[in-house]
Amino acid sequence: MRPKTGSGSKLRPTTTARRTEIIAAAIGVIARDGIRACTVSALELATGFARGHFTYHFDSKEEIIALAFATVGSDWATNQIQQVTGDTARARLESQIRAAAGWGQQRPEYFRCLMNFRVEMMRDPSAFPRAPEIRAQFLEVAATTIRQGMAEGDFRA
Fold first, then answer.
1. Which of 46, 55, 86, 118 is most buried, with most CB under 10 Å away?
2. What is the DSSP letter of 155?
């Protein structure tokens, strides 16, 4: 019997823990060897779980990869939001850069994983349908920072 993952359903703690372990293993495989190397066989080796665990907990390998991306991306975004401070656009930009660099140093496996996702998105944008939307969000944040800096007199055109 497959665990229910729809909205409103609750997973058993063991199911949640197992899913978390599998996603963490996927992050490790992707960080080390890239997205294309993240196969069920590679995840079996990384976790020691039998193949049936993957089909029981997830609909597909692609779902595991998507959740790995969501986990890493969310961690990065949360860090950026929590760490960015400053009274001026220049201070906020410096804070953003320091937060991003600090995150990469503190979470090297996540950083490598995120970079491998970026490479794959550049190679084949259709592999991640939301890639253009995510890229647009990053660019909008950068544009907002620049516009604020210009308005405050910190940046010149």
1. 46
2. S
Give per-residue pLDDT as tens, 54-112. Answer: 989 999 999 999 999 999 988 998 888 888 888 888 898 899 899 999 999 999 999 99
If 0-12 CB within 10 Å is exposed, 13-18 middle and 19+ buried, where does residue 63 land? middle
What distances in angstroms separate CA 139 from CA 90, 98, 125, one per listed residue?
A: 17, 18, 16
AA letter at 19: R
Residues 6+ apart with CB under 8 A from 95: 83, 84, 85, 86
Q: What is the C-alpha to C-alpha distance for residues 121 and 119, in angstroms, rounded to an integer?
A: 5
Pairwise CA distance, residues 101 & 105, whole Å: 6
Do residues 82 and 98 lie in contact, with contact meaning Cβ atoms separated by under 8 Å?
A: no
Cα angle for residues 44, 34, 29 (degrees, 5° grid): 30
